[in-house]
Design brief:
Distance between the termini: 40 Å
Number of helices: 7
Order of helices and strands: HHHHHHH
Number of domains: 1
């Protein structure tokens, strides 16, 4: 099979499905590792963030509370995206976290970080807008193991 003939090659996966899987793999890995490297020392991460926000109107307690929880949220959202577990919810939750990070960076006037956040926002957009293309997911595995009538019983509108 040559690369030039990829449009006519038989495959059970479309290019959009493969693209979604690849982006989910890279993005989920990025977020998961962000969380992993920070959960080992959430206090030192929080201390650094509190220092970085010292010249903003945000009270120290709010920055610290956010900073202590952020690594665990990044880890959870990243794993859910990577595994395709509660994928839509994970993508929305990640987008909300990103919006709050963007707000904070705007207060600090860290415009390069805000610009970087836009690339993350685009990844969230693509993954969420093409969620129907998601394959190789825990969600799909769980759906395939449900008994025939379970979907229509729990969701009458989908019967």
């Amino acid at each position: 099979m040559s690369l030039q003939n990829h449009d006519t090659a038989p495959s059970h996966l479309s290019d959009r499905q493969l693209a979604h899987a690849v982006l989910r793999l890279v993005f989920g890995t990025n977020l998961t590792v962000h969380g992993l490297v920070r959960v080992g020392a959430p206090g030192s991460f929080a201390d650094a963030l509190v220092q970085g926000f010292a010249n903003t109107p945000l009270p120290e307690w709010s920055v610290r509370a956010f900073a202590v929880g952020l690594p665990f949220v990044e880890l959870a959202v990243g794993l859910c995206i990577l595994l395709g577990l509660r994928l839509r919810l994970a993508l929305v939750a990640g987008g909300v976290v990103l919006a709050s990070l963007t707000f904070g960076e705007c207060l600090r006037q860290e415009w390069s970080a805000v610009g970087l956040h836009l690339s993350y926002a685009l990844a969230y957009y693509v993954l969420l807008s093409r969620a129907a293309d998601a394959r190789f997911t825990v969600d799909g595995l769980l759906r395939s193991r449900r008994p025939e009538g379970a979907l229509s019983a729990s969701h009458p509108s989908r019967a």
